[in-house]
Specification:
Blueprint (H helix, E strand, L loop, with lengths): L14 E2 L2 H11 L6 E5 L5 H8 L3 E5 L3 H10 L6 E4 L13 E5 L6 H9 L6 E9 H8 L6 H7 L2 E9 L4 E2 L6 E8 L6 H14 L7 H4 L4 H6 L13 H11 L9
Parallel strand pairs: 2-3, 2-5, 3-4, 5-6
Antiparallel strand pairs: 1-8, 6-9, 7-9
């Protein structure tokens, strides 16, 4: 957000003021005319304005009442923008495919990921997120650190695009941020495939230091065809490998290079 936020700083939020970055976020999200895009934690509307400029239909979500009122005044003449005063942790998410372009409060990163990535029924098409650098690095790591992260990244590819310094925000946060992009992986898992993947991951990460073939009750040949070395520790298995295994479990195949 260009300029100063309302005082006091609501919920410890930090507002993007880097206009070049907000424009790039909107552009790289793939938002276009008629598409639905959601700005979660919209603040003063810097990202919302860039999304609306693409022709996308934009839902700007802001839980602080004063900021929501400011958003309504700013966008009252733009039919493409709907302002919703709500908490991103509990508001109903769209039932049709949607993009998320957002710079949420750092403290809500885990809650946001659980909402967007935890439920496979959520039709998230992709996301561009500005979050705390450490959290972005953990999500973008090739090897998930736990079952929950593996569940997210087996279905969505997470990439850290670049670090975002404190000077890009007002007020500046103490920690560096990073731009994380999420893209749905190729192939769609059936409900059965989703249940199987969750069960495998829950079993595997109970003993992440143990060999895969000792903690996952799957045929050795299936593991090998998915690119998993049966004697490798669970902690060494990458998100890409979990994705390939999920597709094999579901009876599907992955595209070359996926």
């Amino acid at each position: 957000m260009a300029g100063r936020p309302l005082a006091p700083n609501p919920a410890g939020a930090h507002f993007l003021r880097d206009r070049r970055l907000t424009a790039q976020l909107a552009r790289d999200s793939g938002a276009r005319e008629g598409q639905l895009a959601v700005d979660l934690g919209a603040g003063g509307g810097a990202i919302t304005a860039e999304l609306a400029a693409t022709g996308a239909r934009v839902i700007a979500v802001e839980r602080d009442g004063r900021l929501a009122a400011r958003l309504r005044r700013r966008f009252e003449h733009q039919d493409l923008v709907t302002v919703v005063e709500a908490d991103l942790r509990s508001m109903p998410l769209p039932r049709q495919p949607f993009l998320v372009v957002s710079s949420p409060p750092f403290s809500l990163t885990t809650a946001l990921c659980r909402r967007l990535l935890g439920d496979p029924a959520v039709p998230l098409a992709g996301a561009e997120l500005i979050i705390e650098r450490g959290a972005a690095r953990r999500l973008a790591a090739s090897r998930p650190r736990d079952a929950e992260t593996a569940w997210w990244t087996a279905r969505y590819q997470a990439r850290l695009i670049r670090v975002v310094g404190p000077g890009s925000f007002v007020p500046p946060p103490r920690a560096h941020a990073a731009w994380l992009t999420l893209r749905r992986r190729p192939g769609l898992l059936s409900a059965r495939g989703q249940r199987q993947l969750r069960a495998v991951l829950a079993s595997a990460y109970r003993r992440p230091g143990d060999r895969v073939d000792r903690v996952v009750a799957l045929p050795r040949r299936l593991l090998l065809t998915a690119g998993l070395e049966p004697t490798a520790p669970v902690a060494d298995i990458t998100a890409d490998q979990w994705h390939r295994l999920a597709m094999r479990l579901d009876g599907g195949t992955t595209r070359p290079g996926s």
